[in-house]
Design a protein that fits this description.
three-stranded antiparallel β-sheet; RNA-binding; 9% strand; mainly alpha
RNA sequence: GCCCCCAUCGUCUAGUGGACUAGGACGCGGCCCUUUCAAGGCCACGACCGGGGUUCGAAUCCCCGUGGGGGCACCA
């Protein structure tokens, strides 16, 4: 286990919404950095101009902040190894590409995309592996120089060894051995002068003194390439950790558009921004994500500080994990129950406000203990507690009708309840419950029937927080007014 | 097609040759509590992919299958 301060980075490309996968890698990066007293860095990998989408970078930064994974260095906070946006580091990559060419480890390539495509087609037709055919690898240097001077567009390709094997070491998976003949001369600098991921990431990780590279296992295929590039420069390698990928809930394959849409329909999402809006908490999301790919023996409900305490790279798991949204619900609800009343009040208030409700601070603080353990997501507070902030509630007549009772009986119950409660100087669970229970006893009706009618009358809904505690918060006058109205409704209907 | 990775309850996982009658969590089922809905408590169901080795002994090490995943771009 590392005791030296680790410098870790999350290096997303701003090509779409920030998703769960990015959040999880960022979490592990963050945990490792904090645990070792190191730094966590955000680097934006925006070298693919065609795929860059406006606003995506901001969404990543917002997402990380919402999650509480504040980076020590990044595009908007700066740092000693900036800039932290790859399009602003163009010259650095060009310099290093040139270094590689001079060392004989890379070469200019003038093949056009059209020719490359044609070569690939032919190779596939012959059932060969698609690979670069090496046309420009054997070009004489002066010939290449002449064509460059001529203004011919060119890329730089990395010259992979063609014999022997490459052994790359991954901390979770051990040595990964690849025959070099399987490898192929990849483009590291594009015609537009920007690097591909292969060059950019390696150069930046070195320049930014990254000690641990955590990334998805989709990078395993290019892993040998990357270590070859590092070695060509003669640099020390970071520790490589290839995390498992997330599978769709069925466990068959990665999340596709289809599953993503289905999740949204069910009230879930793999996008951080959506999760926030759906009422999930950073604590819940992080705890959930952390455990997909990290095993703890027991006590799996953890806050970030507790995760920092317990985190080790060695306890990460290499196998793919199916997304399980029910588990997200569980962790979210569990963390909501752990929040203090004041904390939860601050988190809930926006949801009430969003509904156009006028939130009285004192009422908010009083109702939270009543609804806290009933919430799965924060927005559930509307279902359970909106009535606390409404001037009037409008019960459905049919909700008012308790099973097995006729209209006369219903009206009688409501009326009697009104009489009992209106005789009290104040209504709370201490004063109101005993006489109401006594009435249930003497009336022959069930508690379920009597309290059911009262619940609907007072809260306007069949499911609510505890009745008498709720009435206490609503207040005597309002309660009586609402019960009176119910009596009216029942007598009419 | 080729290459690489992975493999314990339905799902996430613990397990690093004997403490395994394989532990925990989610979900599911039941019971208790209960004015609704939750929460909480208790109980149950439920897995080492298959076959060969190695070893006194294998979930754990090796090999071969099988299954699953990922990759084979001037995308990351």
């Amino acid at each position: 286990m590392t005791t030296q301060p680790a410098r870790t980075r999350i290096a997303p490309s701003p090509t779409g919404h920030m998703h769960l996968g990015t959040a999880r890698v960022a979490l592990y990066d963050y945990l490792l950095a904090k645990k070792t007293g190191g730094q966590f860095i955000l680097r934006i990998e925006d070298t693919d101009l065609k795929r860059t989408v406006p606003g995506a970078e901001q969404e990543i930064m917002d997402g990380l902040r919402w999650l509480g994974l504040q980076y020590d260095e990044g595009p908007d906070v700066g740092g000693p190894y900036g800039p932290y946006r790859q399009t602003e580091r163009r010259e650095i990559y060009q310099h290093y590409a040139k270094v590689l060419v001079e060392k004989g480890q890379a070469y200019p390539c003038f093949c056009t995309p059209e020719r490359l495509d044609q070569v690939r087609q032919e190779q596939m037709k012959r059932k060969e592996n698609p690979h670069y055919d090496g046309t420009c690898r054997i070009l004489a240097p002066d010939e290449a120089a002449r064509r460059i001077a001529n203004g011919e567009p060119y890329t730089i390709r990395f010259k992979m060894p063609q014999e022997g094997v490459t052994v790359a070491h991954d901390h979770l998976r051990g040595d990964i051995t690849t025959e070099n003949k399987q490898l192929n001369d990849q483009v590291i600098l594009k015609t537009d002068g920007l690097p591909t991921y292969h060059l950019a990431a390696i150069v930046d990780d070195h320049e930014m003194k990254i000690t641990h590279v955590l990334r998805g296992s989709e990078w395993l295929g290019t892993f040998p390439l990357h270590v070859n590039i590092v070695r060509a420069f003669g640099w020390d390698e970071p520790a490589w950790i290839h995390l498992s990928v997330f599978l769709k809930p069925s466990g068959k394959g990665k999340m596709s558009k289809r599953e993503t849409a289905q999740a949204m329909k069910d009230g879930y999402s793999i996008f951080i921004k959506d999760m926030q809006e759906l009422g999930f908490t950073p604590e819940g999301v992080l705890n959930w994500g952390a455990l997909m790919g990290w095993g703890v023996p027991e006590g799996d409900v953890m806050t970030v500080p507790q995760m920092i305490e317990r985190f080790t790279i060695d306890s990460l798991t290499p196998s793919p994990a199916a997304i399980n949204f029910q588990k997200l619900d569980h962790f979210n609800a569990t963390h909501i129950r752990l929040f203090s009343t004041g904390d939860l009040a601050a988190r809930l208030k926006p949801y009430f406000t969003r509904e156009g409700l006028n939130v009285r601070e004192d009422v908010l603080l009083k109702m939270i203990p009543l609804i806290r353990e009933r919430l799965t997501t924060l927005d559930d507070c509307i279902d359970f507690g909106a009535f606390f902030f409404k001037d009037e509630v409008t019960p459905n007549t049919e909700d008012l009708i308790a099973k097995g009772l006729d209209a006369k009986q219903l009206a009688e119950i409501a009326k009697r309840a009104y009489e009992i409660l209106s005789s009290l100087p104040q209504i709370d669970h201490v004063t109101a419950e005993p006489p109401m229970r006594a009435y249930v006893q003497s009336s022959g009706f069930s508690a379920n029937q009597v309290f059911g009618i009262l619940r609907v009358a007072v809260t306007g809904q069949k499911v609510s927080p505890p009745l008498f505690e709720s009435m206490e918060i609503i207040g005597r006058d309002v309660c009586l007014k609402r019960i009176a109205r119910a009596v009216e409704m029942l007598e009419q209907g």
